[in-house]
Amino acid sequence: MLLAVAALAPAPARPADRDNCLLCHQFRGLGRYDAERDRLHVYFVDPDYVHELRGPHARLACTDCHERTAVMDIPHAAVGPVDCAQVCHLSDPVGLERRFSHANVAQMLENSVHTSAVLARTRFAAGPLLAEGQAQCLYCHDEPLFRNPQAVSTAWGAPGGRAFDRCNMCHAETVPVDIRYYVRHIAARLQPARSTLEQAQACAVCHSDPQMRQDTGLPDAVASYVRSFHGKAALLGDETTASCVSCHVAAGANAHLMLGPQNPGSSVYPTRIAESCRSTACHPGSDPKLARTAVHLDLQSLRGTVEYALAAAFVALTILTFGPSAVLVLLELFHILAGRHHHGRREMRELTLAVLRHPDGRRRLQRFTGNQRIQHWGLVILFALLALTGFPLKFADRAWAAAVIDWFGGLHTARLMHHWAGIALILGFAAHMVYAGWTMRAPRRQARAHGAGARPGLVRSIAALPMWIGWSDARKAVQLLAYLLLLRREPPTFGRFTVKEKFEYIGVFWGTTLLGLTGLVLWGEQLSTRLFSGRWLNLALIAHTYEAFLAIIHVGILHIVNVILAPNVFPLSPATLTGQTPVAELAEGHGELVAEVARELGVAAPPAVATGGSHV
Length: 616
Fold this sequence. Notes:
Blueprint: H1 2-8, H2 22-25, E1 31-34, E2 39-42, H3 47-51, H4 68-71, E3 87-91, E4 97-101, H5 103-110, H6 116-120, H7 149-153, H8 165-171, H9 176-188, H10 196-207, H11 210-216, H12 221-226, H13 229-235, H14 244-248, H15 273-277, H16 306-338, H17 345-357, H18 361-364, H19 370-394, H20 399-407, H21 411-449, H22 458-463, H23 471-484, H24 499-523, H25 525-531, H26 535-565, H27 583-589, H28 591-601, H29 607-610
Antiparallel strand pairs: 1-2, 3-4
Helix pairs in contact: 16-26, 17-27, 17-28, 19-20, 19-21, 21-24, 24-26
């Protein structure tokens, strides 16, 4: 049998496999089913790990850890567990034998929050994770690979991929394998041994286990971390964001000496946590109040707090704004499918055509000026860019979110684009406010030019703006709902803008203000924490997230339906391109505007329109 295996084996193992264990263990199917314990033992060892020197144990022989007497016979007798704290005999690059042991690490753990006694009494929902006698190190450690040395090489001032050039200058022909291995071993230690997500996964073995949390009363800190700003960044590939070790281990300290939050020496002790947040790797220069920000923001555990109340208020706001608007859209769709028509529809269409045939009719029925159309498309572009670069953070655990971020060139580039698109939106909003203020002055200038009495006050000037929602709009909204519910024979008609358009405009006004302010607070966290408590970042994050979601569903569903998918404007309302609204849309939704322009131009109305039917 062994001769057959040897005949099928590829080239002999390299000298790194001194005991020639890979002769058998390189086959992926090598394993044994243990009927007594109902489990499968897999004995496969990746040969590339040894041949390519991919990890810190790649230069070790199997018998450096396993007792030689236990593996001398083939098939092997029962092999006992490995003691990670035993003394190893290693060879350095020049061939000298050196002794090494992890016994000091075991002693460190006894002085940490993860003592052997604590780990021994830890219970798991799926039963014991380690076999009897196995090293407790395996709770956190598997067999790690070396981190990518190309990324580390930049810390030495060398471009990526050239970390070994200086060594290979002299040693390329003599000991290239040794040099590459030892430089990798050192370079990998310039970074954490695990990626940010791998660290969270290691911590989740215990801290997300239901049985362990029930016994200790600890929250699922890993789940709340993944839902946090840092965790979502890690899900999207950011290796520079804070990991579990970044906060729970002081800068430069040993992770095996991690202390609990109740220990005064812990990096997350209430009086020391600010030092962790303000480290040079995280938020240097920020105020100590930054520590009041909740890294593990779990709203379910914050009942009765301002954060929870704010989130609940936004949920209610979403239901009360999106809900009625969605109901109106669905009811209108039902009326279209049912083919319902109201009295005077044909006559209003004829009046609209008559006005458009007038030499000045098309200009007078233009609902959007060139300036307004430029502002609109600027808003469209910035909104789309902000949504594409910001919304993936809310669903960072979805595959499409990572794909979108990668399409933008990575999270760092996407953040830059999001920040500067936000600045552009704020500047555009300010410009629109100047434009609205200039528009508001027009009635006052006209009153002065005609020698009228008192000019309109500020409140009346604001109320006269074309996009302002007044009492008449509220009354027409009720009439529209009654018509759609079959409680009214005729729908209300509107002027230049319908109540739905005005409502969307107010939503953009409110959303841009809130998103702009909260975005600036989050972006400038160092200045923000010097002015306010770190809890303001919690509130800003909640408000920014929920308002962005509200804006997405309004624009992505309701506005798209109204300006693209609605039958009167499909496939796209030309009003946003040329300012001209389709005849059907003018007649159906803007009858008051058509009738007003017809009277001013002296266009004769069909009899049903001229008699002042309720549809006009």
